[in-house]
Amino acid sequence: MANLKVEFSGLKLENPVMPAAGPPVKDFTAAKRAKAGGAGALVTKTISTTAAKVPRPNMARTESGFLNTELWAEQTPEHWLQEEYPKIKELGLPVIAGIGYTKDQIRKLARKVEKYADALELSTHYLGDDSTPMEESIKAAKEEVDIPVYVKLSPGIDIPQFSKAAEKAGADGIVLINSFGPTLDIDPETGKPLMGSEDGFGWLSGEAIFPLALRAVYQAANSVDIPVIGVGGIDSGLKAAKMFMVGASAVQVCTEAIVNGPRVYGKIVNELNKFLDEHGYESVNDIKGLTAKVVSEEAEYETVVPTVIEKNCTTCGLCITSCVYDAITLDDSKDYIVIDSEKCAGCGLCITRCNFGALKLE
Ligand SMILES: Cc1cc2nc3c(=O)[nH]c(=O)nc-3n(C[C@H](O)[C@H](O)[C@H](O)COP(=O)(O)O)c2cc1C
């Protein structure tokens, strides 16, 4: 059993998997379920100075990803302060309270929420692509509270610039990424947008944004010295492990918990543990920042023909179908595929297309 405990800016977590701000932490009942499902900390749904008026419909599972047009919490801050936060605090897990957005709104909320939280997470979703409003919100929060202040960044901004600006403004950690957008999907029967927002646009999350999140976390972690929490498309222990490899100190999960319920936190924790054990790592810290150590400083141009691991090949033919260079064939006399090194361009696709580990780069 690998050591899954993590500690950052004074927060001690038994495991590094927590919910991200969203419906799975929309109130005390949901937070209680997240704890029962194995979360190592509780992030709460972003609240603001007023209750959000959210269009309907506002969530859709599509074949290309998950769309939403939720805003922040639909309850008032007074309701959260009286009904939700006190009970969530009682659950006993570290609580990271999501609040938003402008410096004036943060000033009105931060100190009141501090009593029930171990850290604040400032969402910057509606603050635009100039980092000044974000910096002002961080400074406002830092002036109001003594607990750590994390700032949550949206994709589509200059991640290194925003990360450095956040650190300079006093942030104790960075959380990224929020959902990506605007995006659009429609009902093929009517042509009508799936989201009930004014323009029909929504925000994309889930597996479709994982590579975007991984790149953003990698850039942030290599731009600042404060902890970075990775979120975006994590639905397995393997993806959580990848987030640590690019420099995350912990991970958050939203869409997977919406779609498959709160038990996903424990599932991801178990899979992460299995991955670490199988690879001989003793703790998540052993893989943290691995990518930065092995990334090549220069682009690679040499064509390397993949090696076929004959015993693993099932002759399923997936690699043959996908080989745009017609370099892979099945020879009736063999029970494995053959690669023509003259035709192979070394693009690497077949390695990722194979489900059986039958191809690798030496
Ligand atoms: C329905 C829905 C509601 C969300 N609400 C919030 C929110 O209130 N505050 C926030 O900072 N992010 C919010 N998010 C963004 C998520 O916390 C998360 O950053 C994003 O969805 C990427 O992670 P995922 O792919 O695991 O969902 C929401 C996402 C979804 C899908």
Give a structural overview.
The protein is α/β, with parallel strands linked by helices. It has two domains: 6-294, TIM Barrel, CATH 3.20.20.70; 307-360, Alpha-Beta Plaits. 32% of the residues lie in helices and 19% in strands. The chain has twelve helices and 18 strands. Helix 4 (132-144) runs parallel beside helix 5 and helix 7 packs across helix 9. The radius of gyration is 22 Å and the shape is globular. The relative contact order is 0.13. The structure holds flavin mononucleotide. Flavin mononucleotide binds next to strand 4, strand 6 and helix 8. Flavin mononucleotide binds at residues 20-23, 45-46, 59, 66, 68, 70, 72, 98, 123, 125, 152, 178-179, 205-206, 209, 231-234, 253-256.
Give the SSE layout.
Blueprint: E1 6-8, E2 11-13, E3 17-19, H1 28-36, E4 42-47, E5 59-62, E6 65-68, H2 77-90, E7 95-99, H3 103-114, E8 119-123, H4 132-144, E9 149-153, H5 159-169, E10 173-176, E11 180-183, E12 202-205, H6 210-221, E13 228-231, H7 237-245, E14 250-253, H8 255-260, H9 264-278, H10 290-294, E15 307-308, H11 318-322, E16 328-330, E17 337-339, H12 349-353, E18 359-360
Parallel strand pairs: 3-14, 4-7, 7-8, 8-9, 9-10, 10-13, 13-14
Antiparallel strand pairs: 1-2, 5-6, 6-12, 11-12, 15-18, 16-17
The site of flavin mononucleotide has 28 residues, from strand 4, strand 6 and helix 8.
